[in-house]
Amino acid sequence: MADYIAPLRDMRFALQHLAGLDAVLALPAFAEAGGEVADAVLEEAAKFATGVLSPLNGSGDREGAKLTEGGVVVAAGFADAYRQFVENGWASMTGDPEYGGQGLPNLLGTVASEMWNSANMAFALNPMLTTGAVEALRAHGSEALKATYLPNMIAGTWTGTMNLTEPQAGSDLAAVRTKAVPNGDHYLITGQKIFITWGDHDAAENIIHLVLARLPDAPEGTKGISLFLVPKFLVNADGSRGARNDAVCASLEHKLGIHASPTCVMAFGDQGGAVGYLVGELNRGLNHMFTMMNEARQKVGVQGLAIAERAYQQARDYARERVQGRVVGMAGKPPILHHPDVKRMLLTMKSQIEAMRALAYLVGADVDLAHHHPDEATRAHCQARVELLTPVLKGWCTEVGVEIASLGVQVHGGMGFIEETGAAQHLRDSRIAPIYEGTTGIQAADLIARKLPQQDGAAMAALLAAMRETAAAARRHEGAAFQTIARHLAAGIEALASATAWAQTADPAAALGASVNYLMLAGYVAGGWLSAKAALAASSLAPQDEFLAAKITLAAFYAEQILPKAPALSTIVQGGTSFAPHIPAELF
Amino acid sequence: MADYIAPLRDMRFALQHLAGLDAVLALPAFAEAGGEVADAVLEEAAKFATGVLSPLNGSGDREGAKLTEGGVVVAAGFADAYRQFVENGWASMTGDPEYGGQGLPNLLGTVASEMWNSANMAFALNPMLTTGAVEALRAHGSEALKATYLPNMIAGTWTGTMNLTEPQAGSDLAAVRTKAVPNGDHYLITGQKIFITWGDHDAAENIIHLVLARLPDAPEGTKGISLFLVPKFLVNADGSRGARNDAVCASLEHKLGIHASPTCVMAFGDQGGAVGYLVGELNRGLNHMFTMMNEARQKVGVQGLAIAERAYQQARDYARERVQGRVVGMAGKPPILHHPDVKRMLLTMKSQIEAMRALAYLVGADVDLAHHHPDEATRAHCQARVELLTPVLKGWCTEVGVEIASLGVQVHGGMGFIEETGAAQHLRDSRIAPIYEGTTGIQAADLIARKLPQQDGAAMAALLAAMRETAAAARRHEGAAFQTIARHLAAGIEALASATAWAQTADPAAALGASVNYLMLAGYVAGGWLSAKAALAASSLAPQDEFLAAKITLAAFYAEQILPKAPALSTIVQGGTSFAPHIPAELF
């Protein structure tokens, strides 16, 4: 497997022209992070991804993490790579300066996250989960808890986990049964959690678990769940590491992919009770967890993009080298990149990757603007768009990510099925992304039943208006490529608009049955919109070169070859599931 | 992983009402195989698949095949299962009675093949490859070769392999370098072949390799390739097993899936030359191989269907048991089968599986009619349809098979990513089917550049005419479901017709660039046509029951939720790859 090379020029183009990096850097919160800092961060992150993380991706997959008597031992090289990650300041990049973080924009964190995940998705999950835990603690923890835990967590010397799922409580967290019993200044936690990413490992000094649990007298359902902080090692009053807590990894899952990311069954309280501290208010745990869930979902969407980019690089490199047969209209034996069907596959990959990247960075910038823009209306507008687009980013990018990783296998032919080639690992790794942090079905339900109806659909209406402006600008632009873009984008927008109107009045069960197709429709059209913006931006720059010309070609390819899915999905959505209820369960 | 249960009622329905089993059984060649024989065969095959093959599917995946000093040793239970397979007569089911076969119709062999592959795809590859070798030998071998090898191969006591691929010769067989040097009454073969399915194993007494190789003075390219029979053990004049031949497994591939199917690197002639016998004419080896390639491709298409059925059964069973959250409009906590999005996923799986099954059986019956029908015009018509639909069956069913196996993972949520659940194995196993026996790109090129143009497109024109008749019949039928079916089917047919007209005059490179989407379009519309036929047949039967009503509902679901892809694909096809050539290779 060749090492990952960050596509810096593509990333910078998307940052500048689609996400509005300058507007983010102009926010008062980022006064110290100028364009030069941003540039240096990207350069160094790219080096770290290529030089340190990428070489461990294949070996980590083959070796996996192992459970020993002393706990989980990560694959060779991972602990050292994580040490370097912390020492180089990558863990603290976007962290709150009040607790030692560097306070860089979320947008830059998004780009770095793409790089970490392209280079080594199993590795990248550890800091991703830690960031989520930090955000939940920062938003809801007491000052004492924050002072004790945040500095080390933001520095990365301590990592964080999210303990939500139990065997009977997957998507349905109302069914959580883990218990928390008051015991002086803390609680004693007992119960079992499953699917805990990086739940135990030997790559950091301490692990801070955030755990959903119930008090004995708590109300049933979601309104009786509280959030607790349960450290692997207790922390002494002086901040030093104290006794081992009653929280251990009981077993590791044997998974399809991300083998180097230990997925733990966590046992709390087998020795009488794990010491835990309440985070936020009693019985508000689920709300507190939702604070970080949007961000976690955005980051998983970035994983879909990232694994697609990795799969693409590998397929492209193979197609540049591999020679098979002759090519219509070409002399000699050119590499298979020139076969029309291989070129179609690569362009299908690349055009969608660029669309996904634009969407991920747009949301990444909106998060910064929503938090830090001085104008309240702008903050509100950006926050509404973030909320609307988060399930789209998560669901669409991860579903397309799997498709692209699968195309990456296909480009390799028979070699793609051989594990040593590496293409199959990307497919295996990619397959978790549409599942964890809420399946695509959960994202789609969030989109159609919660996000879309907010403020009578104002966020989607604003998005459609912005898209129509872009389509109109493309139509006014000269050239066949722009006319193609304008035509298919306009059709896509109207398809999304009409499906949206249907969804807003549909029977709830029909809407839920159509929701995944609606989410995918929104993703494809958003991707087409941002591709068109990329083409318009590229055509406005001077001097023109092949890189800029390729942006226009890619947008036209996306319009012609991908966007026609939009009217079809709109038909499918509005066809609804009118016939589905008629099949008795026993005839499935 | 629950054991596979053959969906006998669905299979019989497709056999009777879509494939025309009675017409096949009425052929003089099958005078002895009446309806009762067919019924008994299906019942017994179902028992064998469930009782013997299915229980080995998971263990075979975990254990895999191993290379030892004495050759390849298959996973525990596989050798014994194969012995039973042979003893029960499953290997010889469709074999030529002249050499001891049972001479049953290919159509019944297709159904049995679906069962073997659903139960255990890795196991099923062994008899599948053997059948291919038998067909090539039967069509092109000398009487002496046939008398020596066919009886044991048809009985299954000897298995067969296909040795085509070399490291530099994958899709491009013109590049084959393996050498054959005349040496008395035989040839000495030297060279290395890769990706040889069941190339070595300990489950049969002998292995008969069919090997593509070149004479030293042969012309370059495809016209210098000859076909040789190279037995693992030479055969004495009395038919007994003789000396070990110079053909060994040099290594086993470590693959994404089908772990229990040994994929061998075969070394011929490391000790001076493997004894080989010419099959057919010198330098006509590729043509001879193509004899069995159509059939092998049909069988791989059946694998796509089969693995989808297995994945579906597993997902459905999980969805019937798993409880998560409440369901809109239902009291209590019903299993997740009732969640609208889960129902959508299961119906997406099932409706396409039934369409794929109908297509596979239709082609299976056409093969019998093409070979055995007394009327020459009928034979010609069926043969033309077989040739046209073979790449569609192979390409479409295997691509959709991967999608359905992936949906099967998704239905399981987080459990789907855990290997012990078994859903992930189906996805891993399924992923080879769009690659081997010619990638989807190769199938699509065959369809658009070779099959479609035959006789000025007469076969596709006849197919479109048959489809239009069905759409008209649906339109004449009462009821909302049939109106939905008629509307979407008619739109699909016109989409296929217009893409066909485009393809027939398109620039060759553009046609090849669009070919995979054209193939998928043809598959979806053919599936919609056969779903509609199923609905019409179901509505004509008495007494009506829920099983028949479900056929109508499934057809309507397919029309409404799957067929809208057809107009989109037609747009994509005709959009062509007009922009693709403009991107320089270095900007990929």
In a few lines, what is going on in this structure?
The first copy, chain A, is α+β, with helices and mostly antiparallel strands and 588 residues long.
User: Span from first to last CA of chain A?
Assistant: 42 Å
The structural class of chain A is alpha+beta
What's the helix count of chain A?
Answer: 17
Portion in strands of chain A: 5-15%
Question: How is the main sheet of chain A built?
Answer: 8 strands, mixed
Q: From the alpha carbons, calculate the radius of gyration of chain A and give it in angstroms.
A: 24 Å
Global outline of chain A: globular
Compressed to H and E, one letter per element, the order of chain A equals: HHHHEEHHHEEEEEEEEEEHHHHHHHHHH
CATH architecture annotation name of the domain at 8-154 in chain A: Orthogonal Bundle
Largest interface: A-B, 98 and 98 residues
- Per CATH, the superfamily of the domain at 8-154 in chain A is Acyl-CoA dehydrogenase/oxidase, N-terminal domain
Amount of helix of chain A: 55-70%
Unreliable runs of chain A: none
Mean pLDDT of chain A: 96
What oligomerization state is this entry in? homodimer
CATH topology title of the domain at 8-154 in chain A = Butyryl-Coa Dehydrogenase, subunit A, domain 1
